[in-house]
Amino acid sequence: xxxxxxxxxxxxxxxxxxxxxxxxxxxxxxxxxxxxxxxxxxxxxxxxxxxxxxxxxxxxxxxxxxxxxxxxxxxxxxxxxxxxxxxxxxxxxxxxxxxxxxxxxxxxxxxxxxxxxxxxxxxxxxxxxxxxxxxxxxxxxxxxxxxxxxxxxxxxxxxxxxxxxxxxxxxxxxxxxxxxxxxxxxxxxxxxxxxxxxxxxxxxxxxxxxxxxxxxxxxxxxxxxxxxxxxxxxxxxxxxxxxxxxxxxxxxxxxxxxxxxxxxxxxxxxxx
Length: 272
Known about the structure:
mainly alpha; 3-stranded antiparallel β-sheet; 13 helices; CATH 1.10.230.10; single chain
């Protein structure tokens, strides 16, 4: 009977964390002896997602992406985190979750959208990919032209604040170049930045969220997880927002500015 029960017991294999009475393993390493104090958090996050230890250059690019996406001031994700903490100071996890849930198509989600868009274009190329700037420009021009004809936006183009250029974009491109990690996604993204005025009739900046998506895709990270990495970065920023809220609270002022200044109107009436 005992042998039969042992044979029938389910097995759940994992290469991630596992515990025994005297040891914790993570990615095949002894957590206490081999990881703690030896592996940086960015390096570990990459390792967890890919199950391979990144090269130093990959870690540098990956951590540059995390830094680029960590905090952008009083964005909706930051404000909702502060307001949720105001409402439920007993629930730090609720405040952080509220901010994370706001990561979508306008904030943070562009990282995933751009990475997926660029990858789809590259996958559609019939034959070898370009090997010089002129070839990338031609592919980018065809891509932007097609998007314009379909009345679709090109993910990663434009920014509501950095109208003359997002400072994160050239910096991340430079870091990737220094590490020899400018792959096809970054090549195509940079080319889109060069040629889109020919189609749109105006110059838009390549935004930081978009270049981060291109860089993450070039690192070989799963496209399905690109938004997750943006959320990982923003979690650190939201903790910073809460820490500042503790030192210099503004959430109650934000709440009262709406609560004390709302105006009742008949249903259906515009307040234009």
